[in-house]
Amino acid sequence: MADTYVAEPDLGFIKEVGALGGADLKKCYQCATCSVACPISPDNKPFPRKEMIAASWGLKDKLISDYDIWLCHNCGDCNTRCPREAKPGEVLGAIRAYAVGEYATPKALSKAIANPKMLPVLLAIPAVIILVMGFIFNSFGLNWLNFSIPAGGEIWQANFIHNYLVDIIMIPTFFGAIAVFALGLKRFLADMHAQAVADGKAKDEKIDFGKVGQAVVSTVLTIIKHNKFSECGENKERSTAHMLVLFSFIGLFIVTNCFFIAEWVLHIEGPYSQLNPVKWLGNAAGVALVVGGILLLRNRMTKKDQASSYWDWYLVGLVLVLGLTGMLTQMARLAGMAGISYTLYFVHLIFVWSLFAYTPFSKLAHLVYRTAAMTYAEYTNRQ
Ligand code: SF4
Ligand code: SF4
Fold first, then answer.
1. How far is Cα 144 from Cα 150, in angstroms, rounded to an integer?
2. I want to staple 341 with a disulfide (CB 3.0 to 4.6 A). Which of 207, 252, 289, 332 is the partner?
3. Structural domains in the chain plus CATH codes
4. pLDDT at 329
5. C-alpha 292 – ligand 1 centre gap (Å)
6. Residue 306's pLDDT band (boundaries 50, 70, 90)?
7. How far is CA 238 from CA 85, 241, 339, in A?
8. pLDDT digit string (tens) for 39-78?
């Protein structure tokens, strides 16, 4: 006699997936058109139909550990072909949002970041940290937060908020985010492997580290070249926006590290000349971030087949504000507008801190979870 499987639906999960952008889930009548239409779904156990079934049954644990949800690149081809307008691509996006919240710790922060009403509080946190830390260091006579800069002097952001203060705040935040990711990733990898073995998509055998290395290289190349996006039919143009944002973040990361080494190792203080090649890279990356953000915004506003949730808008807003405040801070400095430049810099730092601290809880976490899932799929030869 066949084993009996008793599904234990998590009704709260179904409700949350709906709130995160998968509200049309219930319209699905499981025709499988979406799995056929998806350009990147494998032949063996294709997505997203099976995820639509599992989601409508409320199988939370099965879904959050299903690496197929991360192989989806939200191209929308399935959305336009679904005869019931159930928007399977959106449902997968909502499940990914839920999964990020499940794997990130603390959960209360996940909930706060998913709640638009909490945004002012979340942005106030870095503002308070900068001010309080600045006043503390000032009380020791360090003058790292300076509101009385003499008029007519050189405009330099470090005169207002010293680079040491910025580093002391940002570096622990950055490594804190890495730690949150590490904890989440550890659980995700274990769950993903157990689920893949249970589903017959992988074998429970000894890890071949050589093969892992090959899978990592292959996945990174696929991501850099945006191969998966180019397979999309409906939303091909997302590739350009995504590429600009990804490369701008990589560029800005390089620039930040160069200036960090210049300051702490070589003891070269700014402001740095506009002719400095690292500045060129920073400016190019900044422009790419703004243009990428505008394209993301346009894409979200013009695509009628894709419903955009707060989860999506948060990322678009973050990218745009980061890019604009960064570029405008510099432009105001070059134009000699000290007050505006310093104010914009303060806002920019609030968003930089938010980028670091909230990324493991936000849509940007896909950078880690999708890379892990794609690497695992490559390693296990998912076809
Ligand atoms: S989501 Fe749409 S296309 Fe996919 S199985 Fe359901 S009804 Fe069919
Ligand atoms: S959104 Fe695109 S990648 Fe994702 S399941 Fe649908 S067709 Fe496939």
1. 15
2. 332
3. 11-104 (1.10.1060.10), 109-379 (no CATH)
4. 96
5. 32
6. low
7. 21, 5, 37
8. 999 998 999 999 999 999 999 999 999 999 999 998 889 9
